[in-house]
């Protein structure tokens, strides 16, 4: 978490490099922004006496972020080794970018930090990297073991790896089988592919929600064609086809995926209902878990606007 600085820091190249790197990372900016003349002019405007050597380039920012991550992993590794007396569980997921089809693997570690008078549960992302090759159990196991090695969870002669939680695809079963095989080659026998592989309950629930929503939206495509034309939001009794249309279909059709004029009128009505800053109802997404609940929750909050 980052907070606003209460006082200005001493100007130095290191401080400006840190600030630009944090801007790139926290605001999901392109590394190339550091080389943009408009951005560099902003830095000069804030520090008129700055010279070219004071302003970091995209290469400088990239190197700084990489080195900061290496230092972070080193510190995390030392912390886990010093304070973790038990074993370390992990959660992992693999997904592909819709536009580019590039695959990425994320890995989070969970452990209990034991002190003299208390135990504290910690969770930390220890890996996020691109994946090459097939999404097979053999390939994924190789990547996961490598990430665990980097964090100090697995070494050449020992392993603190406990349970691995992943979604319920068959390749995750073979991933655990291959992790067990890789550890056995090092004479490490404390990971059991059956006992230590935990299916993800949230993934099962999301699959069910996805199926339900697909049926609702498919029906809505047929039913709402008439509803759009028969619905007049200015009428006092502005019910949709006598309440015969499913509530999810009504929300999607009449408040989210509607014309710009309807959206503008909806925002005007919010002002009349005392909502100073108009709110939008977010469209649910099958790949973002819980968004259907968020859509319905926001719609319920705005139920007075009708």
* Rg (CA only): 26 Å
User: What percentage of the residues does DSSP assign to strands (E)?
Assistant: 5-15%
Number of domains: 3
- Sheet with most strands: 5 strands, mixed
Order of helices and strands: HHHEEEHEHEHHHH
DSSP helix fraction: 40-55%
Main sheet strand line-up: 3-2-1-4-5
The average pLDDT value, as a whole number, equals 84
Distance between the termini: 39 Å
Low-confidence stretches: none
| Outline | globular
Walk me through the structure.
47% of the residues lie in helices and 14% in strands. It is α/β, with parallel strands linked by helices and 306 residues long. It has three domains: 13-65, no CATH class; 84-199; 203-301, no CATH class. It has a five-stranded mixed beta sheet with strand order 3-2-1-4-5, covered by helices on one side.
Annotate the secondary structure layout.
Blueprint: H1 13-26, H2 37-46, H3 58-83, E1 88-96, E2 103-114, E3 119-131, H4 137-150, E4 161-166, H5 170-184, E5 197-199, H6 201-230, H7 247-256, H8 260-272, H9 291-301
Helix pairs in contact: 1-3, 4-5, 6-7
Task: Fill in the keyword field for this structure.
single chain, 306 residues, alpha/beta, 3 domains, five-stranded mixed beta sheet, 9 helices, globular
């Amino acid at each position: 978490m980052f907070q606003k600085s209460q006082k200005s820091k001493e100007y130095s190249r290191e401080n400006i490099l840190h600030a630009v790197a944090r801007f790139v990372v926290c605001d999901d900016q392109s590394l190339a922004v550091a080389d943009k003349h408009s951005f560099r002019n902003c830095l000069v405007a804030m520090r008129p006496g700055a010279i070219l050597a004071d302003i970091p380039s995209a290469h400088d920012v990239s190197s700084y972020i990489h080195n900061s991550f290496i230092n972070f992993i080193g510190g995390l590794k030392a912390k886990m080794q010093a304070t973790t007396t038990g074993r370390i569980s992990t959660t992992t997921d693999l997904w592909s970018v819709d536009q580019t089809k590039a695959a990425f693997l994320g890995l989070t570690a969970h452990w209990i930090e034991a002190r003299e008078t208390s135990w504290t549960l910690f969770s930390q992302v220890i890996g996020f990297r691109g994946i090459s090759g097939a999404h097979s159990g053999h390939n994924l196991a190789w990547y996961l073991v490598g990430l665990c090695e980097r964090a100090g969870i697995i070494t050449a002669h020992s392993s603190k790896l406990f349970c691995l939680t992943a979604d319920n695809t068959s390749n995750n079963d073979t991933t655990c089988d291959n992790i067990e095989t890789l550890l056995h080659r090092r004479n490490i026998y404390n990971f059991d592919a059956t006992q230590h592989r935990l299916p993800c309950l949230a993934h099962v629930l999301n699959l069910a929600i996805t199926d339900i929503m697909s049926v609702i939206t498919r029906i809505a495509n047929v039913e709402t064609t008439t509803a759009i034309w028969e619905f007049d939001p200015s009428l006092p009794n502005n019910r949709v086809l006598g309440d015969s249309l499913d509530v999810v279909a009504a929300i999607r059709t009449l408040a989210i995926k509607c014309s710009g004029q309807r959206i503008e009128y909806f925002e005007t009505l919010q002002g009349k209902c005392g909502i100073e800053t108009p709110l939008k109802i977010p469209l649910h997404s099958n790949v973002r878990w819980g968004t259907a609940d968020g859509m319905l929750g926001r719609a319920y909050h705005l139920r007075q606007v009708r």
